[in-house]
Design brief:
This protein is of the alpha+beta class and 261 residues long. It folds into 2 domains: 66 residues, Arc Repressor Mutant, subunit A (Orthogonal Bundle), CATH 1.10.10.10; 168 residues, GAF domain (Beta-Lactamase, 2-Layer Sandwich), CATH 3.30.450.40. 43% of the residues lie in helices and 20% in strands. The chain contains 10 helices and 9 strands. Strands 6-5-4-9-8-7 form a 6-stranded antiparallel β-sheet, with helices on both faces. It has a 3-stranded antiparallel β-sheet with strand order 1-3-2. A hairpin with a 6-residue loop joins strand 7 and strand 8. Helix 5 packs antiparallel against helix 10. The longest helix is centred in the first third of the chain and has 16 residues.
Length: 261
């Protein structure tokens, strides 16, 4: 939930309310929203009415609850086609998962966080936290570190300032100093490893996807369970991973990726 009002004017405040409804993960009553809202009762109600009229929210009279509206689905579908690598990369993601017999993730970065935009689960033996549409920290994921390592210095500095460096596992980087040392190594090697840094029992090898002028626009990873493979085993997937990233780069040359980091 948002605990403060952002300084983006009326639109920003309305988006905060929309985020608050989404944050509950279920239909929510006005009283629940008011309890966590920085807005006065009348202001909150006005925002809810406006968002409902615009079909960004929907109101169910029988339960007196608000939930996300269908217009968001329409907008998300459009954004998926315009801002996501997923439609272009889908054949390569599927082919890579079939080739290695492991789970493959496709991710991009936004405001210092990685967004998983596609996933092919080849093995039913384990599940990863990463799901299409889910956001995860860049500093402790294979795809995140692969992207950070190939960013320009300016973009990387901005992204690092947005990392919380929480210790998700005993293997997580908890400072930018240790992470930067690894990022330098990743830039030399061309691949990154997730050493159970975000989820215990899950490891991965990841590589960046580069666009025009070698600007990093995303990353692919091959994830597996420590009960099935070791980090050394993952290195065998490196050639297939790099080939797939190069293939995605080729088909994405004319893709207009977002200008922000």
């Amino acid at each position: 939930m948002n605990s403060h009002v952002k300084s983006d004017g009326t639109v920003g405040k309305a988006m905060d309310v929309l985020d608050a409804v989404a944050g509950f993960g279920r239909p929510v009553r006005f009283s629940e929203l008011l309890e966590h809202s920085p807005h006065p009762k009348a202001t909150l109600y006005r925002f809810l009415q406006t968002l409902t009229h615009q079909r960004l929210l929907a109101y169910a009279p029988e339960t007196q609850t608000y939930h996300l509206g269908l217009r968001l689905v329409q907008l998300a579908h459009t954004a998926w086609g315009q801002s996501s690598l997923a439609p272009l990369a889908a054949p390569m993601v599927e082919a890579l998962a079939d080739e290695v017999g492991e789970t493959v993730h496709l991710a991009q970065i936004d405001n210092g966080q990685v967004i998983f935009v596609d996933k092919r689960r080849a093995s039913p033996m384990f599940e990863t936290l990463a799901q299409p549409g889910r956001v995860a920290p860049a500093f402790c994921t294979g795809v995140g570190k692969a992207i950070l390592a190939f960013m320009s210095e300016e973009r990387r500095d901005r992204a690092l300032q947005q990392q919380a460096f929480l210790a998700y596992t005993p293997h997580t980087h908890t400072s930018s100093d240790s992470l930067l040392t690894e990022l330098d190594q990743i830039a030399r090697d061309g691949v990154a490893f997730d050493r159970e840094e975000h989820q215990l029992g899950i490891i991965s090898i990841a590589a960046p996807i580069l666009g025009k002028s070698d600007r990093v626009i995303g990353a692919l990873s091959i994830a597996t369970s420590t009960t099935q493979n070791t980090l050394e085993d993952l290195t065998a997937f490196r050639p297939a991973l790099l080939r797939s990233c190069a293939h995605v780069r080729q088909v994405a040359q004319d893709w207009q990726f977002p200008a922000h980091p």
